[in-house]
């Protein structure tokens, strides 16, 4: 049955929720091998052998939210908090540009110290200094007006994982947040014109195959430009410290299924996968992922942006990080691309980038 479902998914880019649940629950080693083969072929058909490199800048670990799984949650009083100044952020971009990056991903907790004016100033200065780059923000939920003004200031992309498409699971894990508002925010970002990224974690406590099938159907409906999928890794200073984490294999399966369901999306090989397995990112690339995000943050703050424990690459200088990741990409038979790396969907809708 698995082979038939995988072949139909490869052909039609669609399975019902019930079919996805059956596939997830009964996927054996042979089925995984076939799934990964088809997901890689699908990636190559749409993007060739390119793997896009983005420069990641984690500019603040302050967060007003209290998500049960996150190491920088507001209730964790053991975190040494930090904020990068505008000049420090620009220095990171300058170093990244020198190394060849043409996309900068600015990520933080939900830190409203960086208000509308500060964020607009940061984006405008980056675009003014480096007009041929794309700027991605990953800063959580803001109002529609702020999203609109940041877009007008030059922000190209916005990453906002939906976390889980299960309302009950979302509400359990996010006591300070609202399930409906998360979805509304994603739709608002898309309507404004951003390249939008969504995504979810695999292996969350209480998560079922039905939940994962719902995640894939939500993504199919949203049709985001980017999909971030990573394993749940417990953090010792959270309520889920003793929970069992997600596995590499289960996460790779979801990456591959997402590639087949939404074939034109950009899919990161996440750092969390590299934390679970020294070759985790390479395995994700061979399962259909085509984005990696080496860290450009100052080495002094990297260990402090600890969403989960034992995060890799916290001590590497940007140049070393870039070289290491480039070697990892080429070892899979793929090719490094340091350009903007816009999604196929975006290129189709914006002919000036085609």
Automatic annotation (TrEMBL):
Its cofactor is [2Fe-2S] cluster; [4Fe-4S] cluster. InterPro entries: Aldolase_TIM, BATS_dom, Elp3/MiaA/NifB-like_rSAM, FeFe-hyd_HydE_rSAM, HydE/PylB-like, rSAM, rSAM_sf. PROSITE patterns: RADICAL_SAM. This is Iron-only hydrogenase maturation protein HydE. One of its GO terms (biological process) is sulfur compound biosynthetic process. Binds 1 [4Fe-4S] cluster. The cluster is coordinated with 3 cysteines and an exchangeable S-adenosyl-L-methionine. S-adenosyl-L-methionine binds at residues 163, 182.
């Amino acid at each position: 049955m698995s082979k038939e479902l995988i072949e139909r998914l490869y052909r039609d880019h669609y399975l019902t929720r019930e079919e996805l649940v059956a596939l997830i629950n009964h996927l054996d080693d042979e089925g995984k091998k076939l799934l990964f083969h088809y997901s890689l072929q699908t990636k190559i058909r749409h993007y060739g052998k390119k793997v896009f490199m983005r420069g990641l800048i984690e500019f603040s670990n302050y967060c007003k939210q209290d998500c049960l799984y996150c190491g920088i949650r507001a209730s964790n009083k053991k975190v040494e908090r930090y904020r990068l100044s505008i000049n420090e952020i620009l220095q990171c971009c300058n170093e990244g540009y020198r190394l060849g990056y043409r996309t900068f991903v600015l990520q933080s907790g939900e830190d409203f110290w960086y208000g509308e004016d500060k964020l607009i100033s940061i984006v405008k200065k980056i675009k003014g200094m480096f007009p041929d780059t794309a700027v991605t923000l990953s800063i959580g939920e803001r109002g529609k007006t702020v999203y609109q003004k940041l877009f007008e200031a030059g922000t190209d992309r916005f990453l906002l994982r939906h976390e889980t498409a299960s309302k009950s699971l979302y509400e359990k894990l996010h006591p300070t947040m609202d399930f409906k508002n998360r979805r509304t925010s994603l739709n608002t970002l898309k309507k404004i014109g951003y390249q939008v990224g969504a995504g979810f974690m695999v292996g969350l406590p209480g998560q079922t195959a039905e939940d994962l099938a719902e995640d894939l159907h939500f993504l199919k409906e949203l049709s985001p430009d980017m999909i971030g999928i990573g394993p749940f890794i417990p953090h010792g200073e959270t309520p889920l410290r003793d929970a069992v984490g997600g596995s590499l294999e289960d996460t790779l399966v979801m990456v591959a299924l997402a590639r087949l369901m939404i074939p034109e999306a950009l899919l990161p090989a996440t750092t969390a996968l590299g934390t679970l397995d020294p070759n985790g990112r390479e395995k994700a690339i061979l399962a259909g992922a085509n984005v990696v995000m080496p860290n450009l943050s100052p080495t002094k703050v990297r260990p402090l942006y600890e969403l989960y424990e034992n995060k890799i690459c916290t001590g590497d200088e940007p140049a070393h990080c870039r070289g290491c990741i480039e070697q990892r990409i080429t070892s899979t038979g793929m090719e490094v691309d340091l350009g903007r790396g816009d999604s196929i969907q975006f290129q189709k809708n914006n002919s000036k980038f085609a």
